[in-house]
Request: fold
Amino acid sequence: MRKEFSAAIEQLAQEDDKLIFITGDLGYSALENVADVLGPRFINAGVAEQNMVGMAAGLAYRGYKVFCYSIAPFAVYRCLEQFRNDVCLHNMPVFLVGNGGGYGYGIMGSTHHAIEDLACLSGLQNVNTYIPAFADEVAPMLSQILAESRPAYLRLGAGPKTPDDSETIGTFKHIARSTESLGTVVALGPVAANVLTALQDELLANQFDVFTATNLPLDLPAELAHRWAGKPMLVVEEHVSTGGLAQQLSVKLLADGAAPSHFVSLSAQGYPNGLYGDQKYHQQQSGLDPANIARQLSGFTFN
Reply:
């Protein structure tokens, strides 16, 4: 999604002279076009993420809209206090951008993974997090972030284009329709592609509707809550379940009196065997691979 991100930022920067972009010494061979367009509005803060966010807050106070870019764990964990105190509590237009969400940086290990980032950020005051599942969602999300001009986090990964005939319902997207609508899968981020691969099985494809959630904290439309009530549900996310999609969605469903008949959460399990590998390896270790998703769906029973 970096290509789509840099192209969208380049366009937005030409339209808004109050846009500033700060990088934490990352983005080489990916953001040169952004640097060329922004000129002095493109700032390399160096390996100093806390200073980067503090600087961004000061610029936002003076009327600028500031993007802070790094890989996801550095953008979130290193400067969480600064983002909370300097940005969120004052509702400033500072936008964190984290590349390689989840296990995106693979073999580089746990220090370069972000599997708790949304839990850290979605509970903060005034913040909205954006989690594109597909590459073509990045540009409209960036436009929305700028239009809202409130604290935000954009979690980038690697995803294909949105499937044809997808339908947006609030902050959810209906990406695959079944013929029988017996159950529901809700995915978060690019791991949605693994769900679609699992549903190449025709029987499963006929039974399960697939949705993605695009934002946390979660805003669940009543239309969806009632549609999902009483049916089995599988939640798939490359994030720990605590504070993630599964926990937030289950609370919303129970509060709306729309509990599913059966609820299964597939989420990031950390490092079960203490080893590191590429992103697909960690997805398999956590049961987020297409084969396990298909097994889980095959195990559901319907009323």
Notes: The radius of gyration is 19 Å. Residues 167-298 form a domain with the Rossmann fold fold (CATH 3.40.50.920). The chain has two domains: 2-156, 167-298. The CA atoms of residues 184 and 233 lie 5 Å apart.
